């Protein structure tokens, strides 16, 4: 029972933290990764457009690749929707001050092209500095057996 209460408190604190984040060009790669998942939850294509690179490649649950413009269109058009999403075990490793990899687990429920999903996936979000600003260049979701 304690674990359930702690999980609920952690989820509430994570939601509050996401809600207080503002987008600035000097954000670190962890903040950009967190903003990415919040933008998916909020279906906010405008924020996605500011934090992902033009050459973004997203590898989905099914191993299919999606480029930046199609990914943003899918979010904006309601093709890819997230009803709930909780990130856990997130760790960011930064390399040479201009590249970083954020990994963790994302438990999400939503739909892709009308097909519902309720999945736990391991994720990696690769960020790179482009013209001095952090941008997400690659995202990969890998289903985790439960």
TrEMBL record:
Keywords: Signal. Residues 1-19 form the signal peptide. The keyword Signal applies. Residues 31-136 form the DUF4440 domain. This is DUF4440 domain-containing protein. Coiled coil: none annotated. The keyword Nucleotide-binding does not apply. SUPFAM superfamilies: NTF2-like. InterPro entries: DUF4440, NTF2-like_dom_sf.
